[in-house]
């Protein structure tokens, strides 16, 4: 009965709408922040890698580290020679690892032992895309440790972040004889880069190099995303601050508006603890119900805009309103 009469009051409905708007704004902003962070992280993973040349097998050390992903064995190619004027072989080389070309195996392409696939970074691929038929099917020579090997270029693919050569599994094993303990891998989180590089250098007996292979376009996108993130985070903190202020003010106003009811309950013999419990139920019902409605609305909007929801913010807001309501009830004194 107490709850029903509280819900019917006009000031309750007004506060209900205000809190829905505030909670909804926080949910949407945090969803956008999460998606921008995910995009920035993906750009970081695609455009950077760690090169590990171990003097002894370090695979277990790398695989046991949960902050490292995409751990792959590679071979280092000294040079690649193509008999055409379309592809510039130098574009495949990576300066930070001694102007070498990375070689991998990948069973997805079903390669024969004498076939390779050239994976080019996005920019280089677009430059030769219209003329790649002049290269596909031609012979090429690959030099590894001063030994030359002949292959047929089966295809050229867009590898986005970096350029590489892809071999069949069998050929890769044969070529790997002198490159047994060379790996490349990615960091999950850009923020841990410096700390993780120091840690790997201490753990691994060998050479650890962080390779930044950002293309100009990707670097500009990443920088722009960071600018948006900075602005959105400031807006998010501001709205959360506004939420705290509004919650304090509305709690105080609602307690004042309910003063007649609480005094009546006190005169009717209700214990002070029971009256405070009733006030808490009213306040928390208002905040929790508006939080749930805002959550449902934000889920619908996120689906429409193809955004990933940030679940943690719901729990944070729930905790904030719970603490706020408990504090206001604990300091409230019945006359």
Description:
With 335 residues, the protein is α+β, with helices and mostly antiparallel strands. The chain folds into two domains: 2-38 and 222-331, no CATH class; 48-214, no CATH class. 54% of the residues lie in helices and 21% in strands. It is built from ten helices and eleven strands. The strands form two sheets. The protein has a seven-stranded mixed sheet. A four-stranded antiparallel sheet has the order 2-10-1-11. Strand 7 (139-144) and strand 8 form a beta hairpin. The longest helix is centred in the C-terminal third of the chain and has 42 residues, at 216-257. The two termini are 23 Å apart. The model is unreliable at 1-8 (pLDDT under 50).
Number of strands: 11
Helicity range of the residues? Answer: 40-55%
Number of domains: 2
Number of helices: 10
User: Which percent band covers the strand fraction?
Assistant: 15-25%
Query: How are strands sequenced across the largest beta sheet?
Result: 3-5-9-6-8-7-4
Rg for CA atoms: 31 Å
Distance between the termini: 23 Å
Give the overall shape, derived from the CA principal axes: elongated
Largest sheet: 7 strands, mixed
List keywords for this structure.
four-stranded antiparallel beta sheet; elongated; 2 domains; alpha+beta; single chain; seven-stranded mixed beta sheet; 335 residues; 21% strand
Write the layout of secondary structure elements.
Blueprint: H1 2-8, H2 10-47, E1 48-54, H3 59-63, E2 68-73, E3 75-77, E4 79-82, E5 101-105, E6 115-121, H4 122-128, E7 139-144, E8 147-160, E9 164-167, H5 169-175, E10 182-187, H6 193-203, E11 206-212, H7 216-257, H8 259-267, H9 272-305, H10 311-331
Parallel strand pairs: 5-9, 6-8
Antiparallel strand pairs: 1-10, 1-11, 2-10, 3-5, 4-7, 6-9, 7-8
């Amino acid at each position: 009965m107490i709850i029903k009469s509280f819900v019917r009051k006009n000031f309750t409905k007004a506060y209900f709408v205000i809190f829905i708007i505030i909670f909804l704004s926080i949910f949407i902003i945090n969803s956008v922040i999460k998606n921008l962070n995910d995009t920035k992280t993906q750009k970081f993973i695609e455009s950077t890698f760690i090169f590990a040349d171990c003097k002894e097998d370090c695979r277990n050390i790398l695989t046991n580290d949960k902050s490292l992903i995409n751990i792959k064995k590679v071979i280092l190619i000294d040079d690649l020679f193509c008999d055409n004027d379309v592809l510039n072989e130098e574009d495949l080389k990576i300066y930070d690892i001694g102007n070498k070309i990375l070689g991998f195996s990948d069973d997805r392409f079903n390669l024969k032992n004498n076939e390779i696939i050239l994976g080019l970074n996005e920019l280089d691929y677009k430059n030769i895309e219209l003329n790649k038929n002049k290269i596909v099917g031609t012979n090429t020579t690959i030099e590894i440790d001063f030994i030359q090997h002949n292959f047929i270029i089966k295809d050229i693919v867009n590898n986005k972040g970096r350029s590489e050569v892809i071999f069949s599994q069998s050929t890769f094993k044969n070529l790997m004889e002198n490159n047994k303990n060379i790996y490349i891998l990615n960091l999950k989180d850009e923020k841990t880069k410096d700390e993780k590089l120091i840690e790997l250098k201490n753990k691994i007996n060998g050479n650890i190099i962080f390779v930044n292979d950002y293309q100009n376009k990707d670097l500009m996108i990443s920088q722009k995303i960071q600018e948006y993130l900075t602005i959105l985070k400031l807006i998010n903190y501001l709205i959360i601050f506004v939420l705290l202020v509004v919650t304090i003010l509305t709690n105080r106003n609602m307690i004042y508006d309910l003063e007649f009811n609480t005094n009546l309950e006190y005169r009717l013999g209700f214990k002070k603890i029971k009256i405070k419990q009733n006030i808490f139920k009213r306040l928390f019902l208002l905040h929790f119900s508006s939080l749930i409605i805002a959550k449902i609305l934000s889920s619908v909007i996120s689906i429409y805009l193809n955004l990933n929801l940030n679940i943690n913010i719901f729990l944070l807001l729930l905790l904030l309103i719970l603490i706020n309501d408990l504090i206001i009830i604990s300091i409230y004194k019945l006359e």
